[in-house]
Amino acid sequence: MKMSVTGHLEELRWLLIRCAIYIIAASLIALLFADRILYILKLPSKGLIESFMILKPAEAITIYIKTAVFAGLSVAILPIFWELFNFVKPAMDKSQNDSVIKWVIAAFLLFVSGILFIYFVVLTPAISFLMNLSQGLTQSPVQLTLSSYISFICALLFCGGIIFQIPLLAFILTKIGVITPKFLSSKRREAYFSMCVFAAVITPTTDAFSLALFMIPMIVLYEIGIIFSKMVYKNKILPGGEVYEQS
Asked: Best label site of 96, 169, 201, 222, fewest CB within 10 Å?
């Protein structure tokens, strides 16, 4: 039984409400551990930033809220993925529906991998470059507000988690017939250019090294996505007896 457009919109509305509830609940729990989370977030700056500033009386509250929301979103991403995959389930056949739980786990593991990659590989070189650049401009020790630092760190970590969804996204879109491996292969140039623009926007520095730290993983993930797409497409039953083309 097909659902009307109004029905889909209503289902989407409730999906967004449930996702908001997950984030709020997880954020409230994370608020209890905000001090520990802040300590972890400040570790990449150890030896690079001597101290942080707080400029407004209520800024400490804002910092705790930012930290809790980021941690809550990172935890709530698991049930959010579950909701999203269930939302697109009607577009899949019954044999594909059995794999939803596997996709949810895969998406969560990729999200965590992206966060860990940014945390352990990208953050320290990026902070080091920024501090050196700033000191060269001011000719004096640089002081940052803790609020701006936390916003910067959380944004990069979350972007890392999203970027690592590229292979799974290619896999799922091929499953439901939105894209084909031939399409992904033919759009390499446009995809690489888009990745370059995206990396330039989210990268806090303008040097080639920091840009490459984002670009190389995205390119690798895109190519993995093409491989996954080909694996899925080979097993699809094509309408009209179309022949799968390796390209």
From this structure: 201
CA gap 204, 200 in Å, rounded: 8
Cα gap 105→111, rounded to integer Å: 10
Nearest to 228 by CA among 48, 102, 98: 102
Assess contact for 247 and 185: CB atoms under 8 A: yes
Q: Which segments of the chain are extended strands (E)?
A: 52-53, 144-145
Contacts of residue 211, Cβ cutoff 8 Å, sequence gap at least 6: 196, 199, 200, 203, 205
User: Tens digits of per-residue pLDDT, 81-136?
Assistant: 998 888 877 766 555 555 778 888 889 999 999 999 999 988 888 888 878 877 77
| Angle, alpha carbons 159-125-75 (nearest 5°) | 30
Where helices occur in 4-99 by DSSP H, the ranges are: 5-31, 34-42, 59-88, 94-97
More confident residue, 211 or 18: 18
CA distances from 192 to 71, 178, 231 (A): 31, 20, 22
Round to whole Å and give the CA distance between 215 and 231: 25
The pairs formed by 128-133 with CB atoms below 8 angstroms and a separation of 24 or more are 128/48, 129/205, 129/207, 129/209, 129/210, 130/204, 130/205, 131/48, 131/49, 133/205
Rounded to two decimals, the pTM is 0.82
Beta-bridged to residue 52, according to DSSP, are 144
Amino acid, res. 232: V
Name which of 187, 146, 183 is nearest 63 in CA terms: 146
| 4, 45 Cβ separation under 8 angstroms | no
